[in-house]
From TrEMBL:
The keyword Protein biosynthesis applies. This is Eukaryotic translation initiation factor 2A. Keywords: Initiation factor, Protein biosynthesis, Repeat, WD repeat. The keyword Secreted does not apply. InterPro entries: TIF2A (IPR011387). It comes from Acropora cervicornis (Staghorn coral).
Length: 109
């Protein structure tokens, strides 16, 4: 179930934090913050009951009613994530990177 009052997730150079919506616009104390400067991507589930983000070390998922950790995935290079329409699955995407091992380059090398 989603949280009772609206809130906004903010990503900046000091990490991710949550701010309560009107009328208070104060930092959400239960969420706290993730002070990693490598926070790149975040997503709410369609019904707002889950919030996920990548802090450069792992993907974290919390439920927004009490901000209890649901899971932590060791995915440090996640650049995109999305919840399924029912909010039951989270898809993450990491850009592939690798080295040229044993591959002969063609023209111009």
């Amino acid at each position: 179930m989603a949280a009772a009052s609206p809130f906004v997730a903010i990503r900046g150079s000091e990490g991710i934090s949550m701010i309560n919506g009107p009328p208070s616009f104060k930092y959400h104390e239960q969420f706290g913050s993730d002070n990693s400067s490598r926070c790149r991507v975040m997503a709410f589930s369609p019904d707002g009951s889950l919030f996920a983000w990548c802090n450069g070390q792992s993907v974290l998922v919390v439920e927004t009613a009490q901000y209890n950790l649901v899971c932590r995935l060791p995915k440090d290079k996640t650049v995109h994530m999305a919840f399924s329409p029912k909010g039951t699955h989270l898809s993450t995407w990491e850009q592939y990177s690798g080295q040229y091992k044993g591959i002969k380059r063609a023209i111009g090398t």
